[in-house]
Amino acid sequence: MSKTSELPGFYKLSPEERLKLVQEFAGLGDGEVELLRKTGALELEQADRMIENVIGTTELPIGVATNFRINGEDHLIPMAIEEPSVVAAASNAAKMARPRGGFHTESTPPVMIGQIQLVDVKNPSDAREKILAEKMQILAKANEQDPVLVKLGGGAVDLDVRIIETFLGPMTIIHLLVDVRDAMGANVINTMCEAIAPMIEKFTGGRVFLRIVSNLATHRLARAKATFSKEALGGEEVVDGILQAYAFARADPYRCATHNKGVMNGVIAVALATANDTRALEAGAHAYAAMDGAYKPLTHWERTSDGDLLGSIELPVAVGVIGGATAVHPVAKVCRKILGVQTARELGEVLAAVGLAQNLAAMRALATEGIQRGHLRLHARNVAVTAGATGELIDIVGKRMIEEGKVSFERASSILKELRK
Ligand code: NAD
Fold it and tell me: Which of 68, 168, 185, 242 could pair covalently with 94 via S-S, beta carbons 3.0-4.6 A apart?
């Protein structure tokens, strides 16, 4: 029997009960469950091998979004995030996508770009010709740097040469295109770019300065689409409201920044859970959103002939399932097992689906009841804790503020004072 990510009432269970269900779904071993259960799973000694000057570790909750059906298969989505409502919103949107088959995704091969900045050439067009004439030799040199990658079917695959105008004059920018397989690829690319730079100088007589990966990974795109039935969304008016919200984002960068932030709530939470480089993803996504010269939504929404809502997303996904911390961080490894993805491409496609779901959920909330209602319960609890509530007082103070319709630090403090009398 195929597995289902539809777990009604999952949110009402205790963390232990949820863990048990996730263990069954993902076939986790007891050791893996223990890693999720215990806090501080990243040992200080291990952390000390990851970055410099280590003095501790930090933690975020990992929630599991339910209901995701991607390309006909059910997935549970681990998300690491401090913001309330994101996991619930993703689950909710994924549920609304199910009646029309869930999410359909695809992606391009995992090709990343390395940039080499060449200056001081007499004639940039000539330099371009010279570099392209030696392309095979340059690619071979790049591939010498990573035999493992080449053996896996990846490696440097092409060169592109651009001439750009800058305030310091024209520059010749070489793009090294590398199929990085299941890695995020920054290290591989940087190593290759540094290795081929002397050849570029020799062939052109110019001087090379920067040699570094580009986070605008336009060759490494993931796409997702889904149809949300008008009934599941709450009727035609809700569809209208969502299209109004989308039109607003398309026309206004102030709104669009928040629109895309909503997308990235989902993308980054999954990236964090799998120990991927979230800054690289953010930089790539926002630069991609501005590719046409104006900052635009990463998603696209339209009404179908049946009156349903069809959404799609396309974004660069520089993520890996190997390399960096992805295969080192103990909890990230378990999260990837829960996700059930084997390759970087699959992970990228999941990110696209989650980003689309998150965007739909945010727009639907905004276009109907407003965002605060969904946020309120957890927000009220957080405010209660900030005001000093502990133990059962957290729920009592939070609930009272919600009943009164006023959630504030001041009110939490005065309720606490009253209760402690
Ligand atoms: P990496 O160098 O740790 O691992 C990649 C290597 O793993 C490959 O070169 C290959 O030799 C080997 N490998 C084994 N199996 C593989 C497979 N199936 N697919 C691909 N490679 C396989 O990792 P990376 O992905 O090159 O670098 C990622 C790290 O670089 C991240 O931690 C990121 O934060 C960091 N970084 C980012 C930037 C940036 O975004 N601008 C810049 C520098 C470094």
Answer: 68
CA-CA-CA-CA dihedral for 276, 281, 283, 289, to nearest 10: -170
| Alpha carbons 278 and 324: distance in angstroms, whole number | 12
pTM: 0.91
Cβ of 186 less than 6 Å from ligand 1: yes
Long-range pairs, 197-200, Cβ under 8 A, ≥24? 197/116, 199/134, 199/137, 199/138, 199/141, 200/116, 200/118, 200/131, 200/138, 200/174
3-state secondary structure 46-72: HHHCCCCCCCCCCCCCEEEEEEEEECC
Residues contacting residue 100 through CB under 8 Å, at least 6 positions apart: 226, 227, 228, 229, 308
List the catalytic residues. Answer: 83, 261, 277, 375
pLDDT for the residue numbered 405? 85
Nearest to 185 by CA among 221, 223, 149: 149
**pLDDT in the model for residue 150:** 98
Tokens of 154: 């990846």
Determine the Cα–Cα distance for residues 64 and 91; give it in Å rounded to an integer.
8
Backbone angles phi, psi at 96, to 5 degrees: -70, -20
Q: Is 148 in the pocket of ligand 1 (CB under 6 A)?
A: yes
Residue pLDDT, tens place only, 207-228: 999 999 999 999 999 999 999 9
What pLDDT is attached to residue 375? Answer: 65
pLDDT exceeds cutoff 70 at 372: no
Cα–ligand 1 centroid distance for 124 (angstroms): 32
Ligand 1 atom at minimum distance from 188 CA? 26
What integer pLDDT is reported at residue 208 of this predicted model? Answer: 98
Q: Which of 349, 320, 334, 215 is nearest to 273 (CA)?
A: 334
Model confidence at 389: pLDDT above 80:
yes
The DSSP line for 265-331 is: HHHHHHHHHTT--HHHHHHHHHHHHTTTSS---SEEEEE-TTS-EEEEEEEE----SBSTTTTTSHH
